[in-house]
Amino acid sequence: EVRLVESGGGLVEPGGTLRLSCAASGFTFSNSAMTWFRQPPGKGLEWVSVIDAMGDNTYYTDTVKGRFTISRDNAKSTVYLQMNSLKPEDTAVYYCGRGSTRGQGTQVTVSP
Questions:
Q1: Is the CB of residue 49 less than 8 Å from the CB of residue 59?
Q2: What tens digit of pLDDT does each residue of 27-71 get?
Q3: How many CB atoms lie within 10 A of CB 5?
Q4: Which of 3, 12, 21, 92 could cross-link to 38 by cystine, CB 3.0-4.6 Å?
């Protein structure tokens, strides 16, 4: 059974930082590209970033480029999202995903 468990969310002031983690199990992690999504309050799901299986290639939506960094540790079956210079518009539930599977999400709130 594929299982994805996100953690690391919380309340942070604008300009602050958070590091999200997603622990994966139930599949060969090192063979899978991994994705971060987010869902702002009252809005639909949006793609944030993706990293290929070996971590050689990463891509970001324009609104987070230069502020967020996706990475992975295949030995730990974990993918990360380092979020710097956070803005109120980054407030959302953040999910990691593999194919059509997503975790339960972790809430990120950016507010003074």
A1: yes
A2: 999 999 999 999 999 999 999 999 999 999 999 999 999 999 999
A3: 14
A4: 92
